[in-house]
Amino acid sequence: MVNETNKKRIVIKIGSSSLTSLHGEISRRKLEKLVDEVVRLKDDGHEVLLVSSGAVAAGYRKLGCLSRPESLPEKQAAASIGQGLLMESYSDLFLSHGYMGSQILITRSDFSDENRYNNARNTINVLLERGIIPIVNENDTITIDRLKFGDNDTLSAKVAGLVDADDLIILSDIDGLYDADPRKDENAQLLDRVHEITPEIEAAAGDPGSEVGTGGMKSKIDAFKIAMASGISSFLGKASTDGIVYNAVYGKAVGTYFEPTSEQENLNQKKQWIAFNSGPEGDVTIDHRARETIVGMKESLLPMNVHHVSGRFKKGAVVRIHDLEGEEVGLGVVNYSSEQLKKMIGLTEPELESYELAAIESKDLVCHLEVSLPVGV
Length: 377
Ligand SMILES: Nc1ncnc2c1ncn2[C@@H]1O[C@H](COP(=O)(O)OP(=O)(O)O)[C@@H](O)[C@H]1O
Ligand SMILES: N[C@@H](CCC(=O)OP(=O)(O)O)C(=O)O
Known about the structure:
Elements: E1 9-14, H1 16-19, H2 28-44, E2 47-52, H3 55-59, H4 72-96, E3 101-106, H5 108-112, H6 114-129, E4 133-138, H7 152-162, E5 167-172, E6 193-194, H8 199-204, H9 216-229, E7 233-238, H10 244-249, E8 256-258, H11 269-277, E9 282-286, H12 288-296, E10 306-310, E11 318-322, E12 328-333, H13 338-344, H14 349-353, E13 365-367
Parallel strand pairs: 1-2, 1-5, 2-4, 3-4, 5-7, 6-8, 9-11
Antiparallel strand pairs: 7-8, 9-10, 11-12, 12-13
Helix pairs in contact: 2-4, 7-9
This protein binds adenosine-5'-diphosphate and the ligand N[C@@H](CCC(=O)OP(=O)(O)O)C(=O)O.
Residues 15-16, 53-57, 79, 137-138, 140, 151-153, 213-215 line the site of the ligand N[C@@H](CCC(=O)OP(=O)(O)O)C(=O)O.
Domain PUA: 282-367
Binding site for ATP: 13, 172-173, 214-220
Subcellular location: Cytoplasm
């Protein structure tokens, strides 16, 4: 039994391929196995949040489709039927063990709005602290393609960051990360520990292994990058292995452990929101001197170092910061609107001194070289 000091907050993500039968429908047996493992962790005193796929798989037959649909409206309609059925199964199973599940459906735009992001955190904290098991999925029925998380891997890492989890466990149909796509290279080796996502690892990560999987290893690697930058230990293992979740929490499972190093700066929650969720609204180009001070010395960006501004944004928006070569340096929250910043360009230093604030305060600045931000997440 754990006590308050070794009690963990654990986020578990299970993919469609691990919850479905060969025909692509939800497998009650697989759901039961997962619930049994979560119950063991709850009985030990841990807090557990599930990120579960499976809404489309649980609903497409009831919609009248013979196989998993391809078109977006049909997938959304299937998810509308299936999400309720999936939750009913989870609720029944958890209740039979004396635990309560709760549903949370999230869209990307919920996370790009800082107030809604913070509100989601407050709600989930109440649920976890009261022993409930929140069950999170993307709100498939209403999200439009362009604005979808799409796969639940990056969603699970962002949720783990949101609730300040200790561990993120991603379950899949494979027993860990290999140094090459195992379907293409029969000599591919399982990596048991990863401290850094190198370009070689990125290159080895391939597409989904089944018709029902969405993100493949690529989206899992994006997820592990987010978790590592947020200081969260992660694990990737095979959902069908007996005791996989329970053993992973205690460091005894076969699979890949992703461990953030102590030298790496862990992004605080505000910086996590800026880096992974905010959705930048404009671009600011800075000169070489500024690049050195904000990246190397981690100082604020001053208005006189702003070279060019594009896009229309208000004070408080998140913007991308580029150097003069066009390379993206990082992201930050601006203290001036685009109109004000544009007026400042070309002013002399004494003229600019009357402005008290930095263009971007160092506390609201996230640099690419400081943490390896996943590109395109
Ligand atoms: N380097 C790699 N290591 C392990 N699996 C890989 C790698 N590259 C591609 N894959 C494939 O990724 C699949 C898991 O992703 P996916 O099908 O999306 O599953 P899930 O539904 O669990 O998210 C594996 O079955 C495997 O075939
Ligand atoms: N949100 C979708 C699942 C998306 C999906 O399949 O993601 P993944 O399990 O990461 O391959 C659903 O519930 O059907």
